[in-house]
Amino acid sequence: MVEVYVKSIRGAPSLDETARCVCEAVGSDELFAFGELLAEPKVTALRDSPQHAKFYRLLQLFAYGTYGDAIANKDDLPELSGLMTQKLRQLTLVSMCTRSRCITVEDAMNALHLQNLQDLYFLFIGALYKGILQGRVNSQQGTLEITSWKSRDVTDEELIKIREKLSDWIDHCASVADNLRAIASNAENAIAEANVNEAKVEEEVRRVRKTLQEEEEQRNLKDYRRPKTQRGKKYP
User: Fold this and answer.
1) C-alpha angle 94/122/28, rounded to 5°?
2) Between these two residues, 18 and 236, which has the higher pLDDT value?
């Protein structure tokens, strides 16, 4: 779907037309990631135009921001249509999902600046039908329970943090692997030592058995050589 808007933006003859394409993209029910659009040269040109910069900020808002950001920066943005407002609120729910799969109704209403519980349920059900997220309303617990959601774009700063976390995770995995190798090596050494000890014990058992057998044979031989009347008696 994003290819359609990329093509429209690339074919836009003016900044006004590019701004119009941006508004269409953020209002679309089928587009939820905007990184490719932000990378387009004609879109970045909006940022450098005092008259059109607000449309660049609008695209950034839908890529990374929340409804709270829209409220806080409303003077620097174009006026949001009803569809844009609904979509941004639903994307805000997605951002909340990344922090917790279980969102309280109170937190959701505060983040979305809603006063009516039915409006929240309507918004949530709409997000389910659009495939923005999957989950259910737990009215008894007063929560929204989310099982999956669409990914949003990430800022360069967030990407750096993700890389750092991945690097830390890789280092941790390497440390765990080293520890496991050390444990395995110790276990192998212990097994080898146990095998050596077992071999020594078996050899000692064979030696003792052989000694006992030889002693028994010697006693039998001595007993055989004694007169019949003295056989079986103990030697003095």
Assistant:
1) 60
2) 18
Q: State how far the alpha carbon of 175 is from the alpha carbons of 168, 169, 180, 183, 230, in Å.
A: 10, 10, 9, 12, 78
Decide if pLDDT at 225 tops 70.
no
Q: Which amino acid is at 21?
A: C
Q: How far apart are CA 43 and CA 220, in angstroms?
A: 109
Smallest CA-to-CA distance from 98 within 133, 70, 143 is with 133
Q: Which residues contact 50 (CB under 8 A, 6 or more apart)?
A: none
Average pLDDT taken over every residue of the chain: 88
Q: Given a cut of 80, is residue 214 above it in pLDDT? A: no
Task: Give tens-digit pLDDT for 143-199.
Answer: 999 999 988 888 778 778 888 888 899 999 998 998 998 899 888 888 988 888 888
**Which residue, 62, 60, 149, is CA-closest to 97?**
149
Distance separating alpha carbons of residues 32 and 62, to the nearest angstrom: 8
- Residue 89: enclosing H or E segment and its boundaries? helix 82-97
Beta partners for residue 133, in sequence order: 149
CA–CA dist 63, 54 (Å, integer): 14
The pLDDT, as a whole number, for residue 210 is 83
Spatial separation of the C-alpha atoms in residues 31 and 8, rounded to whole Å: 14
